[in-house]
From TrEMBL:
Record key words, sorted: Amino-acid transport, ATP-binding, Nucleotide-binding, Transport
Protein name: ABC transporter ATP-binding protein
Location of the ABC transporter domain: 4-236
Superkingdom of the source species: Bacteria
InterPro entries: AAA+_ATPase, ABC_branched_ATPase_LivF/BraG, ABC_transporter-like_ATP-bd, ABC_transporter-like_CS, BCAA_Transport_ATP-bd_LivF, P-loop_NTPase
Family, similarity comment: Belongs to the ABC transporter superfamily.
Record Pfam families: ABC_tran
Amino acid sequence: MPLLEVEDLRVAYGKIEAVKGISFTVEAGQVVTLIGTNGAGKTTTLRTLSGLLKPLAGKITFDGEVINDIGAHKIVAKGIAHSPEGRRIFPRLTITENLQLGAFLRKDAAGIQEDIERAYTLFPILGERRSQAAGTLSGGEQQMLAMGRALMSRPKLLMLDEPSMGLSPIMMQKIMETITELKSQGTTILLVEQNAQAALSLADHGHVMEIGTIALSGTGQELMHDESVRKAYLGED
Ligand SMILES: Nc1ncnc2c1ncn2[C@@H]1O[C@H](COP(=O)(O)OP(=O)(O)OP(=O)(O)O)[C@@H](O)[C@H]1O
Ligand SMILES: [Mg+2]
C-alpha cells in the first residue's frame, strides 16, 4: 500500500478548476516530483494535501486513511509536513523560535530539543545564527529554515514547494544535496519544482503537470530522457 494515494483529485477556486482530476501515488521512502510550468496546479495540489484547500472531488488516502475532509492541523498530526512556496518563515522570530513553531503539536520537550539540534547538524549555518531574527537570513538560508521547520513535526511525508526558487546555482545545489541526504535517511518526499533537471535527477518518480492535469508520468530517469520533456522543460530544442 502506498503511503500517499491521490485519486482523481479535482480542486477549484470558485468556478475556476485549477486541478482537473489527477492521480498519483507516493511509496514510503520515495522521492516523487511534480514538475510543470507556471499555473499548472502544483501548489494547489500541495495545499489540498495539507488540508488548506478542500477538494471538489476525488480521494486522498494517507497512511491507510482517507484525509479529504480533515483540517490542516490534523493532517500535520497524521504526518504530512509542508514547506510552502515562498518559504513563509517568521522574519522577526529567531531561527530557534521558527523551528520550535514547526513542532507546535508536540509536547515532548526533550525530543523537540533533539530535533532542533538535528536541524543544526543538517544546516550548520542555522545553528551558528540560531539567536538571530530569521529575516536576516539570505534566501537560501531561509529555504533551509523552512525545510528544517517542516521536519520538526517528524513527518512521514515531507512536501517541498519549489525549494530552489530564486536561489543562486550554488545554493540550489546545496538544497538539492540536502534533499538527497534526507532521502538517504529514509525521508519520503513530494517535491514540486520548476527546475526539472534537478528534480528529476534525484526523484524515483515524476509527473509532468500541465494546466491542471498530469500530462506524462515516469521514473525520474525516463522523464529526464523523454524528448518532449527535454524540449519543454530542460531548455533543449
Ligand atoms: N487563490 C487563488 N484564487 C484563484 N485562482 C488561483 C488561486 N491560486 C491559484 N489560482 C490559479 O490556479 C491555477 C494553478 O495555480 P498553482 O499556484 O497551483 O500553480 P503552480 O503549478 O503552483 O504554478 P507556479 O509554478 O507558478 O507556482 C492558476 O491558474 C492560478 O492562477
Ligand atoms: Mg506554485
